[in-house]
From TrEMBL:
InterPro entries: ABC3_permease_C, Lipoprotein-release_system. One of its GO terms (biological process) is lipoprotein localization to outer membrane. The keyword Membrane applies. This is FtsX-like permease family protein. It is found in: Cell membrane. Residues 244-362 form the ABC3 transporter permease C-terminal domain. It comes from Bullifex porci. The keyword Membrane applies. Belongs to the ABC-4 integral membrane protein family. LolC/E subfamily. The chain crosses the membrane at residues 21-46, 240-259, 295-318, 338-360. It comes from the Bacteria.
Amino acid sequence: MNDALKRYVKRKVGQGQRPAWIIKSYLPSLLIVFIMVVLVFALIFVSSMSKAIEDTLVYLGCGNLLSNSYIDSSSLNSDERAFSVTNASAIIASQDSTALVQVKGVTEDYYFDKKVEVLNLTTVDNTTTLNSVYLSKTIASSLNVTLGDRVSVLIFDEEEERARPVFCFVGGLYHSGYGEFDSHLIFAPFDMVDGVITYELYTPRSDELRGILEQNGITVSSYKEVYAAIYENIIRSVSLLDMIVVLVGILAGFFAISISSEYIERDRRDIAGILLLGIKRDDVVKAYKSITIKVVIVALILGCVLGILSSYLIMPFISNLDTSKYPFLLNYVISFDVVVPIKTILLLCIALVLSSLASLKLSLKKMIFSDIKAAI
């Protein structure tokens, strides 16, 4: 393109134009903006929820690493924790109902800040001499009990070689939203549970620490291995959604044809005048391809920004919904931090721009030719 045509392109994309003209000029791209807002929000929502489920596997399941061998916590960094836990099966009963549960025996320091956050744990002071147990809201609902109530836990005693009932105080309720745990897991004092002792590690350097421990002859497993089926399902679901979103983005790129058609219809007399001045038709095609792509890129950027902003506005609202007023939310993970999948969003933008270029290459020259004939 020559300099005159480049200036023409700049004018048509809004340089030196009045705000009202710019707004009117960009109206045809609103559909792409809307599509990008929806797609970006969907990507962020699913990525955030999958990260929350991973956190549930870690903080409600077995930690970042799990071992059957004793681990000396004094050898860990200040931001790492190791806990001894016991596990056993039991029957829990209230006046109204009973349920088969898995009991995890833990110490008081087991409930550190991040774990309390992920569990959405609510507690009350135990002013009795009874052991405090922490139930999920799902189990509490099935037993028709709440904070401060009493329940009976029938648990196996290895010393007496028989099951024994333990009268307990409901000192806490948690809600992860993940039924794999919420439907059967309760927490009890470590000394109350006679079962297999394991050691849970919470660390930001799982791979490095695992290598160190295995060099010292300590066998460990990561949460990805302990809950392999769940973890693989998370990865598969996120990958499938990413692929669907990118495909929708590719299809959305073909709306560039509609945008270019609007501009050519609007400017066909200008185009006719440009051609009469001796400008080649191929240069005019390149000019309108440039105009359309620039408008599409502006729409992409605006859609991404609005999609990210809407995520930060809507997701905290969802996280703060009261599950007691909306019981169906007990079946979903609704409390999570916003995670923005930058790479996937960039891939979506690139796919949409490439599909726009492809659609314009296939159709733009034909549209300009037919509209110019009409104008002349």
